[in-house]
Structure formats: structure tokens, C-alpha cells
Amino acid sequence: MATKEPAKSKKTTTKNEGGKGGIIAAIIVGVIVIIAAIVAVIMMNNKKDDDKGNSNNDNTSQAEDEEKTITNGKGDKITVKKYTPNGAKYSILVPTNFKDMSDDEIAEKYTNGQAPTSVLTNEAGDVNIAITASDAAELKNDQIKEYLDAMKSVFETASDDVKTDYYEKDGHNIGNIKVVTEDTDGKEFYNNMIFFSVDDKLVAFAFNCNNAERDEWEKVGDEIVKSLEFKK
Question: What is the pTM of this model?
């Protein structure tokens, strides 16, 4: 990406027009929270995870027993199972060999911004699923589209590979962004993110891997994102 022409900046200030001050203020707060979490995910991938032992995280989710297999870009089968963050009203599928990072590991790895609520990672520590549930970022279900537009504008100022989608699932509006980002050393990372509202609070999932491994992991990330379910 470093060799490409910079993407044209689309200023987010235009979204403050039209008398939407209260809504946009909430959106911008949410953008700051999630951008900080995403930056932390990206920066974590530059570090080697020397600790290969088991973690003991008080925020560990409830991993349900039912398992299924999905196929990655290489044609390999990956076993996944349903994962429900502790006390959450939603769940996703995650690879069974991914581990929860402990609170201490999260604090150590995410030192340059607001840390995600929980993180699951593979053994090498270079493929991650970060979950951020923010009590501070109030966002209603009918504001997700505006939030998606704001997030898209933010990312388009730094990346020329941004794709978005907007859909509904179980009565919840879902915003989806796929974007290739770059760290300070010029290394590229592929991110597949979804965000939605639960009890008028913003929740976000971010699947992340090295862009060089995107062919292998993109299909897995798609399956994880599509597996989102809400409790009735």
C-alpha cells in the first residue's frame, strides 16, 4: 500500500451538518472508541506472543459444546464452535484452537489506546478476534447506518481498500467494514469488522490478520462475522 497513491480524503466534518448534533456526537464518541481498539489490534500483530501457555481471563466467554467445520482459503477444515462473551446477548463462531487472552495479556498488548473488552487469538498470536462492548458509547439501533457512514469516511482517509455492507439480523441493524490498514512499519493488515447496538450501547467485533495471509483467512473471517446470533 505504501507504493499506491494516497486515497482522497473525505472529511467527516460534512456529517455534522443538518442539525444532527446529538446523534453525530454519539457516533464520533463511538468512532474514537472503536478506532482505538482497532489500532491496538493492528499494533499487536507486530509483537511476538512468547507466552504459549493457557490464559485465565475473568472475562472468558461461555464456549458452547456444539462444533462444526468451515473451510479456509487453502481448503483446510477448521473446527469452530459458538462463543458467547460473558453475560452477553449475542454469540459468534470462533476456531476451537483460539484462546482467550487474559486481562494481564490484554493490558500488556494494548498499551496505545482503549483495549477491547476481550480478545481471542491463535497460537501464533497473528490472527485475532477483538470484541469491544462500550458502556460509554451510546448508539441506538436506528443510528447504525450513520455510524457506518462515519466509520467509512474515517477509514477512507487512510486506506484505498475499504468495503462496507449494511443489513439486518434478528431485528438488529448491522454495519460491516472490510479494510486493509497499515502500521507504522508499513506492514498491511486485513480487518473485517461488524458493529451493532445492544441495549442502546455500541458493540463491535474485529477480525484481523496479516494481509499477506488474507487468502487463507478471509473466508474464515467471513464465516465468523456471518455467524453472529442474538438471544431471543
Answer: 0.74
